[in-house]
Amino acid sequence: MNGEKNRAFALLYHSTCDQILKYAVSKCGNIDDASDIMQKTYLNYYESVQTRGNMVENPLHYLYKIANHELSKLYTSNSISKNNIPAFSEIADGENFEAMEALLVQELPEDAKLDTQEIWQYIKTLDPLTVKIFVLYFYHDETWASIAKILNINESRAKSRLYRTVEKLKEKFNLT
Prior knowledge:
Elements: H1 2-27, H2 31-52, H3 59-77, H4 98-105, H5 116-123, H6 128-139, H7 144-151, H8 155-172
């Protein structure tokens, strides 16, 4: 029976993880916090199911509630307002940014490839909204409409911020 619950949990995780991660990214200014919120959300869900002995009626809704609760706990305990959350903390090697790093350098010739850590150091200095747009567009491959909805902004604002950031990257790192 426990193996059946674990399989059901794995299926639930794989069918909902993108939605919960997008939610966490849209609410966190710090990408490391978003990863922590994801882990805590699914851990709390798993523990709840183990305690109850059955699955939840509307798991996605329940996961959103847990994520929201974890966000409240995190920012209340840290006494940080939404407007003062740093865009990124230090990114450890091997975290979920390998895919984004590959996107940044995939079409450059070998001799033109940059140290992706240098690029991320620059990106970390940008404002939180621009970083969120960058992550949602390049890492999650979201559409403009989806990004606008997730971040509660209009599409043209999202596009212009991303295009300006790409132009700054091209200029700063001599990319053509």
